[in-house]
């Protein structure tokens, strides 16, 4: 009982402390950072105001300095300087130069005086009409300074100069070598400025109490200043050295001294000087003290409210956790988990239950994700084959979590070109990898180039189909552009050629199979259009699908092959290609035409005792090779090779047969007195009797026996006319064993008997 009472209170205390920390820490943090933000905002606003003032004052100073520079340039360009430098005894020129200097002083009330020094005479001319020789006095130190400088112009820091009336003035000096723009310098011009005039300009920007403003040189030296408060010289010097190394304009807060100071600085002026303001932050701290006290009080109030809310939330958390623990124990028994509360942490039971449940959920999700590609592939195939009802399609879309609608569908079929060649070059594993790569490319392009959803499937080893949900009716040109882009990327990345068939866009998903059949049908026209084509069913023309006779073409091809007219045979082949393209025959009729033409060539080859396997290879199946060709250009090229081989073979055979005929004729001429038969003659010349008879008949128009008979008759005629041999001896001499046979053959050929022939010719 005591144990059960302690655990909830310990848990309640833990929640209470947690809520207190969660609520109070943000309140304290917000209060602190709010105060700091107000302080920073005030500092930034003041610094921006100072920078704007510095920028405005800097513009005024820049104009003054540029004006002084322009004045020295004008003096340097004055021709009277060179004239006086060349003739320093000329009083007239001296008066002219002094008048010029007086006019320069009169042009600007900031100018105290103007002096000229001439190197040739060592003489210094002043605007106050004083002329004296240079002695190296302290008042003339500016001459030494410019002599030691390699620059054409030089600014000197302020220095006290005693006027002729005995008063001292703080003077800033600007020196320039003259004449301006010439390498041969005749002397130097010095313009002395009242520092109090520059201080007057600094005073104009004193928009805050205790603000101090400085004009600082590029080396960090103070040119002039306007001070309203005592600021440590060491701190000021450190600021100036830091600012000398910075670029542009800006501000920073110095916390080295108390109170802290806000330092703002301008961009560099024309001559490298810049303006610096330094303001103690005492007033800001005093004005923000009220905000700090208000923030502290607000934080205390929120803290008290937070403690009360924390206690209430802690109480509200206990009952749900108690119920959770009870349910956890029941779930643990169902999941057969061990009780971990013995280790002093009851909440670990909840963790065990959640880990087990999440683990099982992840396992189920992983199994589902592994099956998704297969399921999507089957779903796409079922759509293409029209095997799903409208309800089944809806259920599958919901089950597979597809973002597909039921309207607006088109099917794109992607087919690898030169499939037979690819099958010889690559293994099945390689082809599977290529199909996988093509699927990835198509998926990425559709996702990045369009907003359409889709599913894909492999419909054959070399074909893939994309079922694309285009929602609204999609224009054919838009489809063509997408297909051409897919074609280009596949070619660039995989170095493969593909043709793409596009079906029509249909409003309902149930008509997907119609678009698929259209895409397959239009892909067949690749035979006439060529490889790497984008074929759109809507724009494809009608193809001739009826009967078409190629009998005359076959006869012409046979006749030309028999006579060895290769050129004419190839012309017939080219004519067939043009006729097919002109009539737009269907792929079926095209393959029928070329198959018949191939059969004609093979029959002609066989008639000439040719063996297709020996001529084209024992492993070659010509009709299968023809069926694997995908375009009419490839077919025509392949058929050209076949026709040329057959024609060349027939010509070679004709040459060989002519020699064989001559050989048979010679054999007959030599052995005609013997009792000969076709078999004996064939054996004598080394050929098959049937082939020899057929070949001899084709080339001579007579049979071998007819040729033998003619030879015997010719020889017997000669014997009848030139000898007195009787008919029996003559018949035996020319190869007849029976005189009656000889007389019968002679009469058949000549129309009269041998005896009558002898009488007629000899005039008996």
UniProtKB/TrEMBL annotation:
Keywords, comma-separated and alphabetical: DNA-binding, Membrane, Transcription, Transcription regulation, Transmembrane, Transmembrane helix
Task: From the record, give the transmembrane residue ranges.
Answer: 12-35, 290-313
Boundaries of every HTH araC/xylS-type domain copy? 662-760
Quick check: keyword Transmembrane in the entry? yes
SUPFAM superfamilies reported for this sequence = Homeodomain-like
Which InterPro entries does this entry report, sorted A to Z?
CdaR_GGDEF (IPR041522), Homeodomain-like_sf (IPR009057), HTH_AraC (IPR018060), HTH_AraC-typ_CS (IPR018062)
Q: Which domain of life is it from?
A: Bacteria
Key word Ribonucleoprotein present: no
**PANTHER family associated with the record:** ARAC-FAMILY TRANSCRIPTIONAL REGULATOR, HTH-TYPE TRANSCRIPTIONAL REGULATOR EXSA
Q: What is this protein called?
A: Helix-turn-helix domain-containing protein
Instruction: Give the source species.
Output: Paenibacillus baimaensis
């Amino acid at each position: 009982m005591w144990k059960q009472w302690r655990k909830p209170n310990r848990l309640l205390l833990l929640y209470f402390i947690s809520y207190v920390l969660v609520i109070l820490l943000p309140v304290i943090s917000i209060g602190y950072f709010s105060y700091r933000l107000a302080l920073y905002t005030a500092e930034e606003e003041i610094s921006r105001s100072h920078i704007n003032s510095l920028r405005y004052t800097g513009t005024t100073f820049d104009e003054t300095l540029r004006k002084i520079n322009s004045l020295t340039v004008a003096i340097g360009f004055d021709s009277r300087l060179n004239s006086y430098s060349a003739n320093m005894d000329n009083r007239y020129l001296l008066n002219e130069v002094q008048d010029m200097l007086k006019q320069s002083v009169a042009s600007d009330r900031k100018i105290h005086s103007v002096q000229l020094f001439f190197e040739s005479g060592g003489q210094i001319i002043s605007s106050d009409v004083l002329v004296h020789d240079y002695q190296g006095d302290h008042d003339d130190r500016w001459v030494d300074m410019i002599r030691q400088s390699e620059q054409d112009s030089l600014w000197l820091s302020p220095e006290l100069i005693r006027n002729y009336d005995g008063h001292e003035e703080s003077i800033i000096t600007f020196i320039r070598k003259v004449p301006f723009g010439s390498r041969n310098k005749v002397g130097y011009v010095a313009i002395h400025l009242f520092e109090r005039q520059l201080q007057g300009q600094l005073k104009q920007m004193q928009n805050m109490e205790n603000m101090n403003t400085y004009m600082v040189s590029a080396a960090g030296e103070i040119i002039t200043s306007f001070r309203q408060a005592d600021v440590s010289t060491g701190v000021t010097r450190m600021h100036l050295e830091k600012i000398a190394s910075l670029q542009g304009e800006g501000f920073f807060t110095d916390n080295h001294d108390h109170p802290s100071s806000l330092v703002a600085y301008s961009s560099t002026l024309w001559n490298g000087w810049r303006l610096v303001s330094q303001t103690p932050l005492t007033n800001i701290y005093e004005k923000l003290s009220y905000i700090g006290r208000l923030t502290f009080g607000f934080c205390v109030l929120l803290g008290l409210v937070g403690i009360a809310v924390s206690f209430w939330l802690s109480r509200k958390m206990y009952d749900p956790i108690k119920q959770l623990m009870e349910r956890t124990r029941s779930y643990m028994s169902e999941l057969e988990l061990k009780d971990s509360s013995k280790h002093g942490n009851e909440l670990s039971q909840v963790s065990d239950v959640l880990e087990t449940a999440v683990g099982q959920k992840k396992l189920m999700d992983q199994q589902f994700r592994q099956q998704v590609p297969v399921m999507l592939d089957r779903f796409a195939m079922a759509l293409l084959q029209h095997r799903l009802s409208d309800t089944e399609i809806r259920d599958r879309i919901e089950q597979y979590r597809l973002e597909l609608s039921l309207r607006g569908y088109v099917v794109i079929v992607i087919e690898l070109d030169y499939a037979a060649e690819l099958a010889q070059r690559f293994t099945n594993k390689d082809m599977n990898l290529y199909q996988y790569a093509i699927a990835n490319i198509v998926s990425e392009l559709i996702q990045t180039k369009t907003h359409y959803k889709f599913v894909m499937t492999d419909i054959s080893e070399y074909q893939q189909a994309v079922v694309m949900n285009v929602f609204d009716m999609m224009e054919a040109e838009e489809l063509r552009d997408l297909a051409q882009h897919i074609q280009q990327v596949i070619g660039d990345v995989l170095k493969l050629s593909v043709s793409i068939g596009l079906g029509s866009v249909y409003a309902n998903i149930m008509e997907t199979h119609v678009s698929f059949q259209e895409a397959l049908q239009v892909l067949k026209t690749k035979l006439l259009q060529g490889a790497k084509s984008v074929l759109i069913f809507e724009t494809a023309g009608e193809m001739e699908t009826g009967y078409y006779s190629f009998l005359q073409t076959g006869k012409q091809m046979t006749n030309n092959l028999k006579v060895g007219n290769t050129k004419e045979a190839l012309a017939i082949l080219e004519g067939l290609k043009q006729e097919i393209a002109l009539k737009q025959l269907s792929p079926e009729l095209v393959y029928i035409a070329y198959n018949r033409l191939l059969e004609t060539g093979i029959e002609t080859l066989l008639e000439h005792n040719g063996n297709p396997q020996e001529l084209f290879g024992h492993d070659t199946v010509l009709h299968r090779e023809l069926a694997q060709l995908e375009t009419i250009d490839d077919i025509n090229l392949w058929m050209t090779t076949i026709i040329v081989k057959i024609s060349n073979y027939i010509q070679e055979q004709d040459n060989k047969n002519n020699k064989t005929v001559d050989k048979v004729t010679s054999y007959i001429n030599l052995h005609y007195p013997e009792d000969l038969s076709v078999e004996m003659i064939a054996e004598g010349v080394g050929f098959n009797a049937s082939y020899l008879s057929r070949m001899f008949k084709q080339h001579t128009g007579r049979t071998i026996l007819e040729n033998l008979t003619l030879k015997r008759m010719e020889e017997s005629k000669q014997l009848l006319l030139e000898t007195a041999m009787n008919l029996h001896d003559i018949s035996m001499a020319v190869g007849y064993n029976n005189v009656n046979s000889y007389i019968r053959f002679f009469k058949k050929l000549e129309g009269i008997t041998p005896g009558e022939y002898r009488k007629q010719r000899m005039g008996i």
